[in-house]
Amino acid sequence: xxxxxxxxxxxxxxxxxxxGAAAALLFAPQSGQETRTRIRETGLELRDKAEELSAxxxxxxxxxxxxxxxxxxxxxxxxxxxxxxxRAKVEExxxxxxxxxxxxxxxxxxxxx
Length: 113
Hints:
This protein has one domain. Helix content is 89%, strand content 0%. It is built from two helices and no strands. The longest helix has 75 residues, at 32-106.
């Protein structure tokens, strides 16, 4: 979910930067050669910035994935502990039930009045 928002933001940022740079270059009073040189330089700068932002987004996505995997592992471990505790309680109750049942079988039947 957050990654989609980050991707949308990144795309909007890059498009806005390209449009803004192009507008600035087109309306600046320069010769054609100077304009072409500035367009090329700006394009290279924007490419570098896009690569930097992409790498940063990738690092953040990897960090979030690692964090999610860690949390899932912790939750799984907690689930195992709870399951073992519940299993031990059930076994204890079963043993108590067997003990009570064996006592009732061993006890002589009370005569009815």
